[in-house]
Amino acid sequence: MTMNYKELITRLVKIVDQAEYILRVNGDVIFIDADEFYLTYLNKILFVLNRYGEVDWWIKPSNTFPNRVMIKVIVLTVIE
């Protein structure tokens, strides 16, 4: 079962709030910033992204916050 874009963002917000990370959404690009990613939350985020389907993601240094890392997600197909 797939989810739509709104459900994807809603589920990511819940995980990010629990983990106290920072979520930024800019159209089809999603950024999740943190000091570090704990495996528990990283697995939850990746599960949700995998369930949504058509996304590419990377873990890289944050382009907004110094000394932090981010997950950058590009949504390839927006499901309404």
Please explain how this structure is put together:
- The protein is α+β, with helices and mostly antiparallel strands and 80 residues long.
- It has helices spanning 5-19, 39-52, and strands spanning 22-26, 29-34, 55-61, 69-75.
- Strand 1 (22-26) and strand 2 (29-34) form a beta hairpin.
- Helix 1 runs antiparallel to helix 2 (39-52).
- The longest helix has 15 residues, at 5-19.
- The mean pLDDT is 94.
What are the low-pLDDT stretches, counting only 5+ consecutive residues below 50?
A: none
- By secondary-structure content and strand pairing, the structural class works out as alpha+beta
Strand content: 25-35%
How does the overall form come out from the CA principal axes? globular
Q: What is the β-strand count?
A: 4
Helices and strands, in order, run as HEEHEE
Question: How many helix segments?
Answer: 2
Main sheet attributes: strand count, strand direction, barrel closure? 4 strands, antiparallel
Amino-to-carboxy terminus distance: 14 Å
Helix content: 25-40%
- What is the gyration radius calculated from CA atoms? 12 Å
